[in-house]
Structures are given as C-alpha cells and as structure tokens.
Amino acid sequence: MALIVHKYGGTSMGSTERIRNVAKRVAKWARAGHQMVVVPSAMSGETNRLLGLAKELSPARSSDALLRELDMLASTGEQVSVGLLAIALQAEGLEAVSYAGWQVPVRTNSAYTKARIESIEDKKVRADLAAGKVVVITGFQGVDEKGNITTLGRGGSDTSAVAVAAAMQAAECLIYTDVDGVYTTDPRVVPEARRLSSVSFEEMLEMASMGSKVLQIRSVEFAGKYRVPLRVLSSFTPWDIPIEEEAHSGTLITFEEDEQMEQAVVSGIAFNRDEAKISVLGVPDKPGIAYTILGAVADANIEVDVIIQNISKDGKTDFSFTVHRNDYARTVDLLKTKVLPSLGTDQIEGDTRICKVSIVGIGMRSHVGIASKMFRALSEEGINIQMISTSEIKTSVVIDEKYMELAVRALHRAFDLDQPES
Amino acid sequence: MALIVHKYGGTSMGSTERIRNVAKRVAKWARAGHQMVVVPSAMSGETNRLLGLAKELSPARSSDALLRELDMLASTGEQVSVGLLAIALQAEGLEAVSYAGWQVPVRTNSAYTKARIESIEDKKVRADLAAGKVVVITGFQGVDEKGNITTLGRGGSDTSAVAVAAAMQAAECLIYTDVDGVYTTDPRVVPEARRLSSVSFEEMLEMASMGSKVLQIRSVEFAGKYRVPLRVLSSFTPWDIPIEEEAHSGTLITFEEDEQMEQAVVSGIAFNRDEAKISVLGVPDKPGIAYTILGAVADANIEVDVIIQNISKDGKTDFSFTVHRNDYARTVDLLKTKVLPSLGTDQIEGDTRICKVSIVGIGMRSHVGIASKMFRALSEEGINIQMISTSEIKTSVVIDEKYMELAVRALHRAFDLDQPES
C-alpha cells in the first residue's frame, strides 16, 4: 500500500467512454489498497478549441492582461476533466473529490501561459486520502499569490503530476500516455529500437530536450529535483490487466544510479532536424567575441544550442552555433546589420539542412572511448561531421540532414541498442 | 456617470461574433463615462453539453459528492464566457479583467446545484473600476466557506447580476435578454399586448411566478430586497443605437411606488395551465381539517397553490386546492390511501383540464371594485369561475382551460391594457 499519482493525457480523457476506462483503472489501484491522486489533462482538442475562440476575438497576443484571460479560459478544460473523472470514479463505487489548481492550492508565479509551480499545499489532499477518497487534481494550472489563475504551458499537466507527487512524497508517479515507454531511439527510424525498462532522469532530460515527445522536459527536471520516481507507461493496455504487470510496465525514470544502469554505456540515440547552423568566419580572436555575437542573439530572445569556436589562426577565428530553424533568417539578418560591422568581417555562412544526432548515456561518465566509437561508426558510413559538442552524458554531432536516419541506425547498431537489456 | 451592471444571456454569448457585439455595446457604455460590471451567462448550449457528459457517466444524481462535481463541471461554462468577453473588450481597446465567482468572491451556502448567495466582497471590483477597468464576473456560481464551487441553479446568472448590483450599489442593473421587456400579457395570446415601461417588483414577482420566463424569480426577490433598479431589455437591438435610447428601452422594475404606478390599477394578465384541481367533499367542518389534508400533501413534497374551503353545511364542508399537473395522480392516490379514511369520506373529485388566470396590479391595493370588474368581464363571455383566490396585488380565478385565451383577451380589454400608457 502506497501513495500513487496517476497522470492521464488528453487522448485518455477524450470521451466519456475513455474516461470510464480511466476510472476503472484507477479503481483497480485503489482497491489494491493504494492511496490514489489522479491528474488528468483536458479532453483532447478542448484546449485548442478554447484558444481558437480567443484567437477569433483577438488575433494579437501580447499584453499581460490578455495572457491572464487566456489562462482563465484554457484552465476550464482541465476543470471539466476533473469533474467528469470524479463523477466516473463515484459511478465505480469509489469516494472521489476533484480540485482545481486554486483549491489545492497549487501556487505558481504570475507568468501567465508559462507559469512555474512554487509550492503545493498538501493538507486538504492528505485529509481526503486519509478519509479513503480518491483525489482528482487539475493539471496544467495553478494560482498566483493574488488569486489569478495561471497555466503552465503546453504539456504542463506532466509537470503538475510530478509536482503533486513531490509534494505528497508519493511512492511513484505514473504518466499514462499514448506511447508505452521510452525507447532507445525513435522506432519509426529504427524498427529494432527497444523499450528501456529504466532510464536515469539525466538521460531522460537529454532525450526530452532532443524533441522526444514522451514527457514535458520541465516535468523531468522537477522529478530530478525532488527525486520523484516517474514511470511512463501505456494508457492503451486494457484497464483490467493484473496490477503487478501494469506496475512494472513502461519505463521507470530514476534518480538513483544503480548497478544495472552503470552497465549500459549508451542508453539511446536522440536526434532532431529543427536546427540551423550559422558560422561567422575570420573574426578577431580576442576576449569578448562570444559575448559580442551571442549577446546580441540572446537580446533578440533567440535560443542558441550548440556553440563551437575553432582554434585561432593568424589572430583570426571562426565561430559557429546552431539556432532553431524558425529563427535562422532573423539571426542572420541581425548579425549582418548589427554585429558583423563592429567585428570587421562580413563573412557569414549558414546551413538549414543540418541535423543533430546524439548518443545519450549516464554510463559515459566512467567510460573512455565512447565518442571515438561514435565517430568511427559515422565514418564507416561515410558521414561527415560538421560540429561536435560533448557533455558528461551526451555526445552530439551536427551532420547533413540527409544522413540523419542512416546515422541513427548506424549508432543504434554500434552501441548494441538492438540487443536485449542485460 | 454611474456604476452600471449589465447581464447578458446565453444567446447573446452564443458565438464569437455575438460576444464581439456584446463587447461593442459595453464599450459604448464605458466610453459614455459609466463604470461597468458585466455578468455573462455560459454560451448557449454549453451547460447542457457539460451536464450531458456527466449524465453519460452517472445516470443517478443523488449524493452530495456528485452534486459537488456537477457544480465543478457546470461552472466552467461561465468561466469560458468571462474570459472570452474580457478578451473581446480588450480587443475593443478597453482595459478589462474577468473573475470567476470564487475570485470575487461571491460567497454562497453549500447547497450544490441550488446554492444561495450570502455575500459578495466588493473590494477587488471597486479597485478595478477605480483603475478604469471593465470588470467581467461569472454568473450562476459562487464559492462556499470551505472553498467548494457552487452553482445557483438554472437562470442563476440573473440572480448573480442583481446580487453584484446590490453589493456594488449600482445605479441600475440591465438584463439583456431575447425579449424586449415585460408585457401586459403574452403577445402570442393577445396580439395587442403592450410592453410596460415600468412595473413594480411585487407585480413582477407575481408575473414571474406565473411562468413568465423573462426573469428568474429569485433575481426579482433579490432586487426587491436590496432595492436594485432592474431593467429588462432586448439584446437584439443594434449595439450602436444611441445610449440614451437604450437606457430608456425595455421595462424598468422598480421598488418605489411612484405616482405613475398608482394610476395603473391593473398592470398585466398572467396565466398558466400547469395546475390541476382536487376537491375533497363532505369532510367534517372542525379544526385541523386543512392541516390533516395539506399536511400530508406537504410531507410528500407536493407544492399547493390555490386553496379554498367552502362554507360549512350540516357540519360538513368541501375543501379544494390546486397542485402542479405532474403531481396530480400522486396527490389523489395519497389522499385516497392515507387521508380520506381518517376523515370519514371517500368523496374526491379532480380536474386536470383547468387553468389559472390572474390580474396583477399594485394599484389594486387602493382601488375597490377591481375583482368584480374581473368577474363581470368573464361572465359576459360566459366563462364559469371554479375557484377564486385573492391577494393584495393579484386576483386569480381557476376556470376551464378551454376558455383560457378567451379569458385573457377579455380581461386585457376590460382593463384597457391595449391602450397606450398614460
């Protein structure tokens, strides 16, 4: 018997029939003696419908006052879900009570549409659990100190669930989703991709930031910070599979480096083709260059990912970095008009047809030769590496995007990810 | 310049196009220098949609826990409306802010789905008005002392608007609806029916309780209790009609008996055919008879309207009353099995083909001969009166339902209601 948090996505809540299935699944856990807190998302399509109405009334989205109203509006989607799920749970014969974010309360800062959770009051929820009730809490939303409703941004319900689990010191937070776990890489690219039974939260962070849509990245950060055991599992299994089987399905995201994980050197291959590369050539190699270039980019609110500065030659150096493709043209324009003149160069090169491929693994920390194995595998396929970036648990390369699938498959094989877990 | 409350029904809020029109109308008032508070209903159909989803999940509706969740669910409809309206007002160039019931807060008791407003905190709203903002507040809902969301029952947004107007001591509360005011009687029955420019709240109460759907009866009681000048007017006039014209359109419901009203002896003709008549004959004329009969009926939660006890003859009397037609069979059954045996009679008569027609007028108080004028008009049409009931401002007769339209037309003419207001 333990305190368990379940989170269900919009697809799982998409119809009354599906909500009934969620209720049956939760009831199974409650009847097994667990204290249950459930965090459902809005019914699929509902948030888009609401924001679509807002857009019809006001195409511009700028002022704080407008963002406040968008949160007022969008937060109703989750409130509908908790009400319906509580009703479905009651129909299953359980005692159930729902809370909107402000009722718990889930306290956030006042950054409308992208608020951050600051604290969660657990008193009310604990009292309900002690009274034998299932507690259903809205995801995605909270309340600021002035009593305004806030939302956490897209995918925020994952973060809500993890934050609730942290506040309640839950034994585990189960994220039911439309994939059945975290894979060594995207199975659409590598059919042999294998589901990981567990992955460290640091690896998961790298996977998430590479565009893996399994979990919102902030929820993983939160889980790591508060050491919440997090499990991603399928919401499409029949609700009445044995609870023991369900409890061990999917992928467990852990914060403890156990022995098993040390054995796996590389856990997965991440990739994305959302980036573009920009190189400024022949800039003077003196202090402040990186700041001169990237400071201007940051001031324009453009996010930079990989950054490389080549070795100096004749007092000049080349400086390269990647930005999101959507920001490419704006960044080049900004550099040409505002930055390059002061650097005494007009040499700028760019490429939007690149991709980034990374090997991710917490085991890299204590193993040498991982990067060179990666480079060899790519070399054997005749793939030229344009940029390299390394961190403790990740090695990324930027390559021509036409080689992306080839590179991912080669690396997946080179690191034996198609073999069963030891 | 005054503090004005506007209330808009679900039809007025039925689409983004209509919401934009509401915003333009409110903006007109705000630009004329008024401090504006707006209470919109849920978009038409939304409350039914939400409760329909709940019904799919739980056909039974009994427990307090279930009713709590229905309120959680249904209250989102109005929250969507306030968010959208605030956005539309901002798009019109106004500063606008929306509040859900709990944010104001609108305090109610805990009677889920039929809560009563206990108090409204005006501090936040006053501060916003002072800062030049239009304030948009959800109708239909509030929050109990434990922080649970409550709703006021169908049509509750009227009551919310009046309660807000009372708390803010608004100069006037304007209820925009799909009829353009209160009429001397139903224009579908009497084409000559005339819109009243004003009506006393006591008359309005009698009209409302007779099934006139213009205003929720509790909102009228509230307006009377707190002396809120209330105006019912059309939401279908173009938003850009001159504000002076709009401000004097519709029907004003007042609490002051001004001279003009004293002149109008009868303000309107109300009627309904929802009732059925039951007579118990030959009961002993002794103390406690009324209680014996009606006590049993009340215990079964059946509402009684007109009650008549005829004069005694040979120590026996006849006792008649009306109930709602839906309760007719149950009432007769109850009396036959539980009550009549103890009264020593088995004579019971009933008639479901009756109707009640009433003349309503605050002027009756100081005029004699009104009732007899009513009876003469009916007599001239050959209409037999079965029951009579009088109050200070209303005289009702129960007649055969086939004469209903004839009676209403005759009375409308007899009291000169088809003539222009003096």
Automatic annotation (TrEMBL), chains A, B:
Substrate binds at T47, E78. It catalyses: L-aspartate + ATP = 4-phospho-L-aspartate + ADP. Pfam families: AA_kinase, ACT, ACT_9. Its EC number is 2.7.2.4. Pathway: Amino-acid biosynthesis; L-methionine biosynthesis via de novo pathway; L-homoserine from L-aspartate: step 1/3; Amino-acid biosynthesis; L-lysine biosynthesis via DAP pathway; (S)-tetrahydrodipicolinate from L-aspartate: step 1/4; Amino-acid biosynthesis; L-threonine biosynthesis; L-threonine from L-aspartate: step 1/5. Residues 278-357, 359-422 form the ACT domain. Keywords: Amino-acid biosynthesis, ATP-binding, Kinase, Lysine biosynthesis, Nucleotide-binding, Transferase. One of its GO terms (molecular function) is ATP binding. GO terms for biological process: homoserine biosynthetic process; lysine biosynthetic process via diaminopimelate; threonine biosynthetic process. CDD domains: AAK_AKii-LysC-BS (cd04261), ACT_AK-LysC-DapG-like_2 (cd04923), ACT_AKii-LysC-BS-like_1 (cd04913). One of its GO terms (cellular component) is cytosol. ATP binds at K7, Y8, G9, G10, T177, D178, Y183, R188, K213, V214. Belongs to the aspartokinase family. This is Aspartokinase.
